[in-house]
């Protein structure tokens, strides 16, 4: 899951991965284009400080060890990370993490998807990502900003939107009213557009389409 998140975000975010195993670290570095892979221990306080943990918006602990994930999340938060997410399988460690103010979000293997992680990384109200069908699909909620001059979608009918293959508009929430996503429905400023997609890799294309021009 960590590798997939890094692949999706490395072009637009400053991503660092800490991997203890040297061979695995080299393999990750080969698979990624821009993310920085560090061979080391995530519980190494000096390493975290050297890499600017105090400027980290989100620290994700996604190892196979509940103990490690909880401990390094607590350490990262106390060293200045703005938000921490820990992958926890066993209830005893989930309970421990819940008692700590230093673990902001706890996710279980049954709940975790790339989209689920992305929903915590996105800023503002532009996009929210929700897991569906046990991770087999993702639901995206996008808030439409701008007007016909600054938006690529305002004033367009759903049937005319250049959506990536596999992305379908299911409904629009407008002024607290749910509108079914008929082909002739016109997108307006402030709409909450609800879409489904089966390939989380298409999220960047959807985000670009609905982003407001500068």
TrEMBL record:
PROSITE patterns: RCK_C (PS51202), RCK_N (PS51201). Coiled coil: none annotated. Residues 127-212 form the RCK C-terminal domain. Keywords: Ion transport, Transport. GO terms for molecular function: monoatomic cation transmembrane transporter activity. Pfam families: TrkA_C (PF02080), TrkA_N (PF02254). Residues 1-107 form the RCK N-terminal domain. InterPro entries: NAD(P)-bd_dom_sf (IPR036291), RCK_C (IPR006037), RCK_C_sf (IPR036721), RCK_N (IPR003148), Trk_Ktr_HKT_K-transport (IPR050721). The keyword Ion transport applies. GO terms for biological process: potassium ion transport. PANTHER family: POTASSIUM CHANNEL PROTEIN 2-RELATED-RELATED, TRK SYSTEM POTASSIUM UPTAKE PROTEIN TRKA. This is RCK C-terminal domain-containing protein. It comes from marine metagenome.
């Amino acid at each position: 899951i960590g590798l997939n998140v890094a692949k999706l975000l490395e072009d637009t975010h400053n991503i660092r991965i800490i991997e203890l195993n040297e061979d695995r670290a080299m393999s990750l570095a080969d698979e990624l284009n821009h993310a920085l892979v560090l061979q080391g221990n995530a519980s190494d306080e000096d390493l975290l400080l050297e890499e600017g943990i105090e400027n980290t918006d989100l620290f994700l602990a996604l190892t196979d060890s509940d103990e490690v994930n909880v401990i390094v999340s607590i350490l990262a938060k106390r060293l200045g990370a703005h938000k921490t997410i820990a992958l926890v399988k066993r209830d005893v460690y989930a309970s421990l993490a819940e008692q700590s103010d230093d673990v902001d979000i706890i996710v279980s293997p049954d709940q975790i998807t790339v989209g689920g992680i992305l929903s915590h990384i996105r800023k503002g109200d532009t996009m929210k990502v929700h897991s569906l069908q046990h991770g087999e699909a993702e639901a995206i909620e996008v808030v439409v900003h701008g007007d016909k001059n600054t938006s690529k979608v305002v004033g367009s009918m759903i049937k005319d939107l250049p959506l990536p293959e596999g992305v379908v508009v299911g409904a629009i929430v407008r002024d607290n009213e749910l509108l079914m996503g008929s082909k002739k429905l016109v997108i307006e400023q402030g709409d909450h557009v609800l879409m489904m997609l089966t390939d989380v890799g298409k999220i960047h294309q959807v985000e670009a389409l609905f982003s407001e021009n500068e």
